[in-house]
UniProtKB/TrEMBL annotation:
Residues 1-38 are annotated as: Disordered. This is DinB family protein. InterPro entries: DinB/YfiT-like (IPR034660), MST-like (IPR007061). It comes from Streptomyces acidicola. It holds the Pfam family MST. Transmembrane segments: none annotated.
Amino acid sequence: MQRMTDQPARWSQATVYPDMWADPDDDPRDRDGAGPEGELATLQEFLKDYRTTLRMKCEGLDAEQLARRSVPPSTMSLLGLLRHLAEVERDWRNWITDGDPLPKLYGERDADFDKAVADQAMVDAAYSDLAREQAATDAALAEHPDLSERLGKDGTSVRELMVHRVEEYARHCGHADLLRECIDGRVGQ
């Protein structure tokens, strides 16, 4: 078994630009033409691209690789990131409601990372949970297209929530870059 402290050879699947994750023609995040029109559409596009990036960083790995931890004492893994972001998506819906909060998906604090183990059923559930929670949060926020609208008990603005969503995914995509490189040496944007 390869440990995270071993140094696999660095490689990229890209052939056009060797520092990229995928060739531009194969990259689902690359689009021709002008970007989206307006602030909300721009935030949604960035969020979509970071969600895609996270999935790309996890592609082609088995359950053991996805569950592989970074460096002790951290419990961070790609599988933990998938579970964490499902948990966070659910929590963001708690921010915009006046009702009782939804329960945590994985139990006590940090269980999303701490209990992520190399089990294919857990991997499949993590992908399913993330897709479901993303869709539910997207649907809840679609009812509030005014970025200055304030929601929930704390009066969080839709803009603040959207920016925080982009920030959360972007930060964790950076973690995913390092985790993936340690697993099999694959690098790229």
